[in-house]
Amino acid sequence: MFLSRFRVNTARPGARRLLSSPQAMHAAVMSSFPHILPSDSPQPEAPRVLWRLDQRARAEVLLYVVSPDRPDLTHLVEQAGWPAVADRENPGWQTRPYAPLLDRLAAGDRWAFRLTANPVHTVRRKEGEPRKLTAHLTPVHQMGWLLDEERQKRLGFRVCEKPAGRRLLPEGTTHHKHPHPGDRYELTIRDTRSLAFDKSRGPGARRDKPVTVVTVTFEGRLEVTDPATMRRTLTQGIGRARAYGCGLLTLAPATQPGHRAP
Q1: How far separated are the first and last CA of the chain, in Å rounded?
Q2: Which residue, 37, 129, 192, 206, is most buried by CB atoms nearer than 10 A?
Q3: Closest to 198 measured CA to CA, from 207, 187, 189
């Protein structure tokens, strides 16, 4: 497995086209692997290509890619990077083996993390109708999605709770006794976006309804509870919409509360 980081040149038309379309970005990322077609479906239990966009400043957008094979991002440099500063020693991106981090994971380890995900649930609007997939829209429900005990068990970690002295509310609840996970847990929401894009391919293709995806970027601290399961989470992703930049969890050493993941 490999972890790659690519800085997008947001001033270029090619970059703006990719940033405006998760489908186009997914195709560009998958084109970094010569033996994979963008339309190929990954095996259910196998490591897969995951990607995520992090915007740290107005003109600083970073693309992270986790992949079973080493990518060649030359085409991305040519259309959305800085070709003038790329050379043999600095091709325009950084790739490093992921195995050293995966191998060192142990139960009880604590890490800072960042995750962009698509928190959804199913609802039935009328009696007798089938349940329909719907996005969580409020921060409390979005945090609740990630904090679900069964979900965290399946992912191999748990989000750390804040020490009592750092909480503002008693028992992590409001004065109306409503849960307030942002006060109880080491968990914040950095960004929420609603994406809508056309999934049709080519001018002659049938035009379906636009695809809409609500994405949420979480940051916080977690504790590894099951290292083997955690390795699977890091290489297979979390939740739905993984083809559209969701599901990639990254870790960084967390020696102090609030340390940010890459």
Answers
A1: 17
A2: 192
A3: 207
Closest residue by Cα to residue 225 from 165, 130, 142, 154: 154
Q: What residues does each domain of the chain span?
A: 2-97, 105-253
Tokens of 24: 């186009």
Q: Which residues contact 77 (CB under 8 A, 6 or more apart)?
A: 6, 83, 86, 91, 92, 93
- DSSP E strands in the chain: the ranges are 2-8, 50-57, 60-67, 93-97, 110-117, 120-123, 132-135, 157-159, 187-197, 211-224, 249-253
d(CA 204, CA 2): 37
Assigned fold of 2-97: Alpha-Beta Plaits (3.30.70)
Phi, psi for residue 190 in degrees, rounded to 5 = -85, -30
Q: What is the pLDDT along the chain (262 residues), one digit of tens a residue?
A: 999 999 999 999 999 999 999 999 999 999 999 887 767 777 777 889 999 999 888 788 999 999 999 999 999 999 999 988 778 888 889 999 999 999 999 999 999 999 999 999 988 877 878 888 899 999 999 999 999 999 999 999 999 998 877 777 766 666 677 777 877 899 999 889 998 877 665 555 556 677 789 999 999 999 999 999 999 999 999 999 999 999 999 999 976 554 455 5
CB 234 within 8 A of CB 261: no
Structure tokens at 219: 């940051």
